[in-house]
């Protein structure tokens, strides 16, 4: 398309930006100031709303009017920042000025006017506001759109102390390169009849490069300025309702060609070491005020955080709870004190216990010896009263309120883990805790209380010599049992983490995703056996653009079908082929899958595509409908399995080394996982790398209420609370604590 046609569309788009009145409500403290500008030789009108010592400067677009700023005409920006702790500054005028210092007077259709906007915004206006409105000339924010998007970044580049936050909304971020000088010239002539050479001279002049954010991205990254960069994909949405078709088309086309410069700016910013920017490139969005207003609201929490107002400081970490000293109750006093060996003196209380050999007065009574065990022992079994041994309490009421000191059982058969100050205890030690330790304490108690436990054949041996071999044998036995239980528990957790059984729900979840689904005849009963546990999705291409679902179901002579569970055609039609195991993976290995056994643990997705070649760029020869269906299929299955986008595996990632596979061709699996992650919600209880990315994003960008968040990949209560707080502060989001597609876009977890 020629430059002239592009310029016509650009001018039409800039002229089509709606001017429907959306003034803020009455009663707001908005002032219209006349600020003198010696550099421009006249007073400049400025709309101002006080709210704090720091300000946000809202710059207008190419067709700026002389009566009011476009932000006030087309949005409720004053109302959005009312009582936020930040003042709002809206310079009025500056049509086609790019908010720069021009070389020559700006000659337009109405005459000539001096443009020294950079001087006014960085010297004259801050000084006047500081003297007359108490505004701090440092630590402010600047937001620009369209024409002023690049100007906002330029101001932050050259005046980093004044502007610590800068935002470009649909801005032209490479004005000195390619056709952009020509396009800008056409647009300036259409919007007032201005000549771009009066602004920065010929395109070879250094001023063009000085005012080019792309050229100076390294300086901007080194400044550490917080950035918010937005550009839509050129597709209209509900925010364009009521606009004429021509306006929507031209605004969409202009946004689309602007998007390429914004993405290039992102790449160069990251390459320069930048780390303090938000890049938001949603698929929908045209060059119009509805989207810019929505972005201003979305960036507000970040803006306030950077300016240090409107948000509470992060809560201090909870203090460490002191370890309480053991309560020395009547029970503990009756049980005695610590012996020189560090053990509790296990003298029985004289409060009476049937079977202990003494009554309440201490007189000897008949022993209740219980029943003999297999080894001829007669264990002591107290039935009522209290008996204090090693801190163990057997009175029903005392056992309920846990007042017996160290070693109190907190449930039947369980030993409370309390460490006595003079006798450290290792948690989980089978020699000191648990039912075995309880039995040993009862054994020692029976010896002191008079119950007879004498081995008939070894009665003459000393007690320690008689019992040591048995203690060692039991010690090794219970250590082995503990390891066995741990292994069983690990296996159980791994099984719970995946779906067990055949995916008979495939067709239902794919339809729920909004996909066009066809059920191949007999698919529910087709397969090479049953699944073990399903851990994710494996993506393939068939090698031919027109491979049918029947060919996947029937297979080949050397490899009988089914060859996958799902088939996706070029037009995006999804066919369920089999519910059982399919031969699609073969030999291979992957960290999350058993070696050579992926068929029993993954759902195979075959896409009817030639794959183009092993080195083809991402999505080459992949129709939009087919790729969208692939993303939807992976998202639906991942959501049903609860594994997230991390469960998506490319066949080449699994079998590339073992079989030389390179499918899916022309698909960057990392980018596929990124696109799927935007569709798979993150909810409390899940663990994945995407949760870690969410936590890092919340902690770094929203420190006011998420600065204390731990980045551990586990979606716990703290992460849920931070997500809810973000949703409450972001208009249009439901505060449910779940990161769905809308919240992911608002958090900039997807796209770009």
Automatic annotation (TrEMBL):
One of its GO terms (cellular component) is extracellular region. Pfam families: Amidase_2 (PF01510), Esterase (PF00756), PG_binding_1 (PF01471). InterPro entries: AB_hydrolase_fold, Amidase/PGRP_sf, Amidase_domain, Esterase-like, Mycobacterial_A85_antigen, Peptidoglycan-bd-like, PGBD-like_sf, PGBDSf. Its main location: secreted. Transmembrane segments: none annotated. Residues 326-335 have a biased composition (Low complexity). Residues 366-397, 454-486 have a biased composition (Basic residues). Gene3D superfamilies: alpha/beta hydrolase (3.40.50.1820), Peptidoglycan recognition protein-like (3.40.80.10), PGBD-like superfamily/PGBD (1.10.101.10). It is found in: Secreted. Residues 426-439 have a biased composition (Basic and acidic residues). Residues 522-665 form the N-acetylmuramoyl-L-alanine amidase domain. GO terms for molecular function: acyltransferase activity, transferring groups other than amino-acyl groups; N-acetylmuramoyl-L-alanine amidase activity; zymogen binding. Residues 315-486 are annotated as: Disordered. Keywords: Acyltransferase, Secreted, Signal, Transferase. Residues 1-22 form the signal peptide. SMART domains: Ami_2. Residues 315-325 have a biased composition (Pro residues). GO terms for biological process: peptidoglycan catabolic process. Belongs to the mycobacterial A85 antigen family. This is N-acetylmuramoyl-L-alanine amidase domain-containing protein. It comes from Mycolicibacterium litorale.
